[in-house]
Specification:
Distance between the termini: 43 Å
Helix content: 25-40%
CATH class of the largest domain: Alpha Beta
Oligomer: single chain
Order of helices and strands: HHHEEHEHHEHEEEHEHEHEEH
CATH topology of the largest domain: D-Maltodextrin-Binding Protein, domain 2
Length: 349
């Protein structure tokens, strides 16, 4: 029995179809079909059955899936044992919310690249719904975003911190009242895609207060949203840290409302049944240090990280210094950097 057939079987289940599994694994769909047929012949039982237009696991297929996942995790651990003597290696795929990636992740990425230069780090900007789905399906190893009822049954979810999200407008904004109910406001909400957690929460608030806006200006870049708001084209709802410089310089102001200042938890998620590689463990520990720095009952700056492969000689530092501020030059998310390539970015908070 070949491991590649088990990996193909797992991919078909996780992706939901032969075609998606083929795209993920880089095979032709006919290859996927042949590998599943070979596995069924070796086991002597069918693994899938049709339910309408869908393919679903048979009862035996469900049992085989559990055993296949265990075998593949064991195989991954054996492969990693051979690599540990050479330091951290392999690849790590992480999906992140755009605001966190643009304004909070530079210290994490910088330290990870220094500690694990041989690891290929692939980071993509996604909305929070996509992050949870990609972690669940195996399209990425880690997800970092804001809570949108992520499924705890399939995912191991850890809270990293909480961040204030506020209403923002230009100093010239002439309709700042978002408290009084029953308004028809001649203003535009400048926001991102409909699946954005911040947009959803704000629109729920406006509906509850019967506040109706003229328009919604839908954009797909946080920097573009801020520039439009600074030009008095409308107002927006973003994490305070994403507009820190603009607030300090007076180019943006915070509007008073019950929805302004609500704290959103930032989460890190991985699949429960997936083995945590040393590279993943290192990245998660760096996330805890950088994103949990102001949370009670969390690890504080000045705490040494645990010993991980390749770490002891490369970093003896503690985190006793104050939290570094985001680099203005990288806040536009135009920086493209990975441990061994480019940082792929699809701007979607």
């Amino acid at each position: 029995m070949e491991l590649k057939n088990l990996r193909t079987f797992q991919a078909v289940v996780d992706r939901g179809s032969y075609q998606r599994a083929a795209e993920a694994l880089g095979y032709a769909q006919s290859t996927i079909t042949a590998q599943i047929q070979q596995l069924e012949e070796e086991l002597g039982v069918p693994l899938f059955q049709r339910a309408g237009r869908r393919m679903v696991l048979t009862r035996v297929g469900e049992q085989v899936l559990v055993q296949a996942r265990e075998l593949l995790r064991a195989a991954d651990r054996l492969l990693q044992l051979g690599r540990e003597g050479q330091g951290l290696s392999g690849s790590l795929r992480a999906d992140m919310a755009e605001t966190l990636l643009c304004y909070q992740m530079q210290p994490v990425i910088r330290r990870f690249r220094r500690l694990a230069p041989q690891v290929r780090l692939i980071i993509q900007s996604r909305n929070c719904q996509q992050i949870a789905e990609n972690v669940r399906s195996g399209a990425c190893d880690l997800g970092v975003g804001y809570d949108m009822d992520w499924c705890r049954e399939a995912l191991e979810v850890e809270q990293l911190g909480e961040y204030e999200v506020i209403l923002l407008a230009s100093p010239e904004f002439r309709h700042p009242d978002f408290i009084t109910s029953g308004q028809r406001k001649p203003v535009s909400l400048v926001t991102d895609e409909p699946d954005s957690i911040f947009r959803r929460r704000l629109e729920d608030y406006l509906r509850a207060r019967d506040i109706i806006l003229d328009h919604t200006l839908e954009l797909w870049s946080i920097e573009t949203i801020k520039r439009c708001v600074m030009s008095d084209l409308g107002f927006t709802y973003l994490p305070r840290f994403a507009a820190q410089e603009e607030l300090a310089s007076g180019r943006l102001i915070e509007l008073e409302a019950p929805i302004s200042g609500v704290r959103f938890p930032a989460l890190c998620a991985r699949r429960r049944d997936r083995w945590v590689s040393p590279a993943m463990e290192l990245f998660m520990e760096l996330l805890r240090e950088e994103l949990c720095w102001d949370q009670p009952n969390r690890r504080r700056k000045g705490t040494m990280l645990p010993s991980l492969p390749g770490r002891s000689r490369m970093e003896k530092e503690t985190c006793s210094k104050s939290r570094p501020q985001p680099d203005p030059s990288s806040s536009s998310c135009q920086e493209r950097a990975t441990s061994s390539g480019s940082l792929r970015n699809t701007p979607q908070p």
